[in-house]
Every structure is written in C-alpha cells, then in structure tokens.
Amino acid sequence: MRDLSSTLFAKREGSRDHHVLMTWLILTGVILFGFVVAWELGFIGIIIEADRSRISALIFVIYICFSGHCFWLVLGLSTEWNMLRRGRTMIVENDENLVLSDADEVIVGGAKLPPGVMTDHIRNLIVKAVRHEDPRLDQTLLIQNLAERLRHKQNIGWFASDALIKLGLLGTIIGFILMLGPVATIEEFDVEHLKRALTAMTGGMAVALFTTLTGLIGSTLLKLQYQIIDKATVSLVDEITETTEVHVVSVLERVNAGI
C-alpha cells in the first residue's frame, strides 16, 4: 500500500515543479509580444499623445508595478510547490516517524522537513494533537486559516485590477468634459469657430475612448495573472490537505488513541 501511495504521489511531482512560474511566463511573454507589436504599429504612441489627461500613462505604470507583484507571488508559490514536493516525498516514505523536536522543527524519519507552509501546518497539527484530549483530530480550521493567509497577499492585486477599470471610467468622464467644454465657449457660428470647437471635441473624445480602452485591457490582463496565482494557491492548499489528511492526521490520531 505504501508503494502504491508513493507511486501515485511521484507521478504528480514532475508536472507540478515550476508549473505556476512557467504558466505565468508564457502569459507574460504573449503580453509582451502584443505590446511590442502595438508599439511598432504606433498604437501606444497614439494613445499616449492623444490622452491629455495622462490617465492612460498612469494605467500603464500601475499595470507594470502590479505585474512585478505577480512575479513576486509566483516565485513564492513555485518555491512552496518545490518544498511541498520534497516534504511530501519524505512524509510518504516515513509517515510513522513524525515528531516535533525541541527546536520546534518537524522531523520525519530523522530528517528535518524543508521550510514552507506545509511544514508550518504540520507543526501546528502536531502541537494541536499533543494538547487535544479527543483522539480525533480536525484540521478544518487550520486549513481555512492557511488558505486565507495565502490568498490575503492577492487582495491588493484584485483591488488594483478593479481600480484600472475605474481609472478608465474616470478618463471617460474627463474626456466628455473636455469634449463638451468647447461647445459652451462658442460665441459665433462661423466656420473658424466651429472648426476649433470640433477639433477640441475630437481631442476630448480621444481621451474618453483611449482611457476606457487602456483601463479595460490593463484590468483584464492583470486579472488573468492573478487568476493564475489564485488557481495555483487553491491547488497548493488542496495538495497540503490531501497529504496531511492521509499521512499526518491519521498517524497523529492513532498515536492519540494509543494504537
């Protein structure tokens, strides 16, 4: 049975290593390619030049900053996946020899578990099992807390992606104000006055449309990145839950029951 369990876990290891990082890099590469094409065709220059409100430039800056935040989160998740893989292999092979050292380190089969969120979770489970009178060990609250801590780092990113849409809408309002402003200043309906008014109205319309377009594109692309991170976080928590439920909780319950 142990050999079967080890085989099943081993089959998933290779497919998970750096999977999050590779997915994010592929998406980022496609986005960069699209940006370069838009730059070469002059679309980026047209947007920056036509947007007198400079909201489009602000959206670009926010998008770049939070893409960096995504990269930082992706690196952290990739590291956690690697630590999970190493720790899971150790636990599957030595789940009967699971102890907490005096230095508050989780020892499995005489070796220290690699640092990571799974190791922290197992440490909490061992402490709870020692202090818990009931032989049955429920890790639901600990898992929920773990998931909340991991997803808490994404909150600012989701806020930023929504803020990009709102900035685009703000640019739309400013554009309409700029577009309708010249109408109020028309005193004479001759050709020259009308031409100047129409030119100013066209500039205002450009601000409204370009800021809306930039906000929608930026928000969508940023949400795609955070969606990758969120999915990887959920999968990480699922793997930790499965590993600990099968190989840690069951062992601790047997120890508490004196079996």
Give a written overview of the molecule.
It is a single chain. The chain has 259 residues and is mostly helical. The protein has one domain (2-257). It is built from 8 helices and 3 strands; from the N terminus they run ααααβββαααα. The chain has helices spanning 2-16, 19-40, 43-50, 55-93, 117-131, 140-152, 155-184, 191-257, and strands at 98-100, 106-108, 111-112. Strands 1-2-3 form a 3-stranded antiparallel beta sheet. α1 packs antiparallel against α4. The longest helix has 67 residues, at 191-257.
Order of helices and strands: HHHHEEEHHHH
Radius of gyration of CA atoms, rounded to a whole number: 28 Å
Structural class: mainly alpha
Distance between the termini: 19 Å
- Say what oligomer this is: single chain
Secondary structure: helix percent: over 70%
Residue stretches low in confidence (pLDDT < 50, at least 5 long) are: 1-15
Q: How much of the polypeptide forms β-strand, as a percent range?
A: under 5%
Which characteristics define this entry?
259 residues, three-stranded antiparallel sheet, 3 strands, elongated, disordered N terminus
